[in-house]
User: Fold this.
Amino acid sequence: MLLGLKDPLFVTAGPEESLVSMVRARAAGRGVKMPTTLTAIKPQHLEATDQSFLLSTIAKLWLAGVEIDWSGFYANEKRRRVVLPTYPFERQRFWIDVNPRALSANKVPPVEPTGKNQNVSDWFYVPAWKQSTDFISIDDSAHFQQGSRWLMFTDDSSLATGMVAELTSRGAQVICVRKGEFFSCQAKGSYLINPSNGGDYEKLFNELGSSGDFDCRIVHLWSLFSRGEQLSRAELIEIATDEASSLVCMSQALAQAATQKTSVLIVTNGLIKITGDEALLPEKALLIGACKSIGQDYTSISSRVVDVAVPTSVGSREEELVERLLIEATHQCGDYVVAYRGSQRWIQNFERLKLETTASRPARLRQGGAYLIASGLNSIGLAIADHLARSGATRIALVDDLALPPREQWGTGLDTNLDQDELAQCLWQIWTIEEMGCEVLVINTDVSNREQMRQSVQQTLHRFGEINGVFQAPRSSGSKPVSAKEEIRDVQASQVKSLVALDEALKNVSLDFMVLFSLINSIPATGFEFTMPWAAAYLDAYANARSCRKSPVIAIRWSDWLLQADPEKANRMDLAAKERFPEHLKEYGIRFEEGMDAMSRILDAGLSQVTVCVQDLQTYIETANSRMLLAVEEQRSKPALRLHPRPTLGNAYVAPRNDVEKKILEIWQEMLGIDQIGTDDDFFELGGHSLLATRLFARLRSEFNVSLSLRSIFELPTVTSQAEMIAALSWTEKDLELQLSRETVEGEI
Assistant:
């Protein structure tokens, strides 16, 4: 009768299974569905405990639909309340501290860009130095009043001594800072600091501001030096990089210490050609890059580079220069670069130059010529190669650090989806160039390594017999603010060091010309990411210094190309910039045929320094600056991240041991809002959850450029384990790149 019920369930109250076997045998004999049978007491042959077996039986009863008397089940339980951690986002502060109407009222409205000029002839701008009106006399200036404070980064030159003496005689308080090995106070108003140590600048400004608000004008004289006979271009780059990094370190510390807008005057020499008699040092152009970066990253600092011709002897000319520099330091203007020659002040403007296509000028490109393109495997480098092949060149060397597969494997790459595979697009373009009858030599090398570039040039000469012209295509080095000497060196490696290596490799090679490409961008990637002016400033100065030589050097700055694709930059953009960037390129981007037409006109005209812009250049610059300032304001209006004290954990605090662990800890702090996170702390014990783990996974992949999985975040929940995983993945990928880089790909398909 019981077996005839719908879905019967049998429970035996004893440990024996004989009753269970009998029920199953009876059900099998009658041909009915086998019923569910459970045992309440654990049989002797099972290893489980009695309690766990009973709980398992109760759970199976509940799953079968039996109503359990849970009140009776928990009747004798003793309860303890446990405090659970809150979610990290509950620790954030959302109070509004600023009146939004007042904030929006002070915002500068963005400058609306003009449309793209469809006439290529009107795209060209050349720099022109013009005399500027004089400022007020030093005797009429209120900035030299009794008790005004001046911070002078000085040396032992007569110019520095004269400026300090002039200020002191007028009752100003002068603080002198000189180079040393470490921070020290020599006497009242005299300090020594290590220029490469950012901590020394922090100590200096903290001490100067300890007596009250930091308020003084700054004059930087450490960049006044001449080229030594034994110094190579690479050594000069090293010196100039040290000076530029020192300025960046100073600005970082100053931005934290200053309570109001502070002006910084950077005095140098050998930077600008006005009279034609100057002994130029193009490496000093890195100071211009530093100055522009400081202005973009720190709106509370107004910086300016002043190039001077230092008098050879002490006298009236030096006294006049001292007076004009002191007046310059008190004058507020928008000029990044100013030059003084005698009593004349010069500023740089850009004049539009109309370049028409004409057959009267001899063509620079040779029929059957041989050309080398550094960084030649990016989109612009390949566009140049395509244009050269269409213009009659028969031999092209593409030198790049991108490792292509062996020639015999190119067929596989050409069969892939060209719209999605960047490597396949590169191979296809090379194949197209060769189909025009042009011999293409692809050399895999580090374009910033001087010895490797020398070997690449020699290999090209051995293969082609000559090199008629050289192009340096822009390298994708990103756009982000520099914050330390190591980061500045990374920026130089993108184009500056490659140009130094190229210059040395071509020392004994006779060329028709050399063309240097750099890009200007009008859309900042994020609040503090903007066009990096370092490389472009050096390229311009290098071309200017070489303009009188037999083999001219032409520096071309371009607005955005339609064909340029930089996925790294797209990943760094904020959402708004990422959305408008494709539309911006579609509307304002320079198309391939337009860019090559413009380059041909510049080559034929014999210009040394040109900016190519599809809009009115002044409007273009104002648009970019207004967007940058708005982005900076929006970034700084966000509330500062509030870090909460480290919670009580089962493990002790362990400090980070390397840069990778430090960077991971910064990401953790930003996400969790906790101070003093240790490398052995568990991400999930600190309040992390699956949503934060997904964000952490994306940040780590983007920051370290490694192919890790989301599962690894759950399996490796500590900073130490994640750093070890990233190091292992990075080493594996570098080892693969090293293996590929050992092969030089050349010849025909």
